Amino acid sequence: MAGRKDKIQKLRGSRIAIAILVGILIGCVCSVLFPNGFFNSGSSSLIVNEERLSKSTSKVGLVSCESSERVKMLKSDFSIISVKNAELRKQVRELTEKVRLAEQGTDNARKQVLVLGSEIKAGPFGTVKSLRTNPTVVPDESVNPRLAKLLEKVAVNKEIIVVLANSNVKPMLELQIASIKRVGIQNYLIVALDDSIESFCESKEVAYYKRDPDKAVDMVGKSGGNHAVSGLKFRVLREFLQLGYGVLLSDVDIVFLQNPFGHLYRDSDVESMSDGHDNMTAYGFNDVFDEPSMGWARYAHTMRIWVFNSGFFYLRPTLPSIELLDRVADTLSKSEAWDQAVFNEQLFYPSHPGYTGLHASKRVMDMYEFMNSKVLFKTVRKNHELKKLKPVIVHLNYHPDKLERMQAVVEFYVNGKQDALDSFPDGSD
Hints:
Low-confidence stretches: 1-5, 41-50
GO molecular function, one term: glycosyltransferase activity
InterPro entries: Nucl-diP-sugar_transferase, RRA1/2/3
Protein name: Nucleotide-diphospho-sugar transferase
Domain Nucleotide-diphospho-sugar transferase: 185-406
Strand order of the largest sheet: 3-2-1-4-9-6-10
Mean pLDDT: 84
Keywords: Coiled coil, Membrane, Transferase, Transmembrane, Transmembrane helix
Number of helices: 13
């Protein structure tokens, strides 16, 4: 019994020790979790929460201020980037255009094939014919809607005779208008370079066109001489071609005896009358240059042709024709050169180092149908058979007494006065 009691007492002591140990552990835990005691913990947590809320509110305000500043900075950066982006796009466009032009220059043959058709094989000997007739441009009425409406009324089969005139040439213009009406030509248009010609055209019931004001053109047009006015046509005619019309340019010192449109071939970009006075000078010849000091190689063969006349020519509405006008107009704007000389230089000079020639097809008009005054007064009037021929036009380009000779041409070819041409010298006094 005594042993059993001792065991019971030891067990009780152990339990008490365990209980004390557990109590100590719980106290330590509570002292950590509730340092201010059980009854002060609510107010303490409220204070902590308030502090946390105030800190959070202050942080929100700070973030809001920082966000506003950040937005301003982003907007500024976006504006700068947009400007730089626009500059880069411009540079890209410029570089793209340069590449396009370079490709156009180096790959022109391939592009021409794409425009004119598929590649073809050469046929048998003697059957191969190259293309001379370039495709016409797509009409663009936006370049001049007012002129487009006028040409719709006046032109015939998309072709028009165009004459530039100011008051200095009114007597010759009157004689030309009479010849136009006599032949029955309907598609005839005068570009009036001053108010006097505008009124004159209205009185004669002739179609005319008055361009929009242009100081560079108006100064020359109103007071310029024959050569100065003649140079303007290369600027004026461009819009006609852009609108898709074939243009027959005529100076005022020309008498019309037949309708010229029935005598054109229309197989080339440029079809022009010649300043030549016989078959060789008008259509070309092999001219041998002799240099005796070269001995065995003293003879050098050259090709010669007298110039195309820039006072009467037909242009098809093609890119080479428009390029011709642009080249001549540009050259004349930079120098005081004669327009006819520049016209022929652009037509005939070939490509060579440092220069790209104009790739325009050309045809010379029949010199007896489209007759210059040298042919008439030096040859035709003295030949019984040639006097029987009736030309399409006579251009009094070789003689300064233009009006008197124009009147004589009308007397000879229209009124049948056989000696009307006899009193004039071959050349000029």
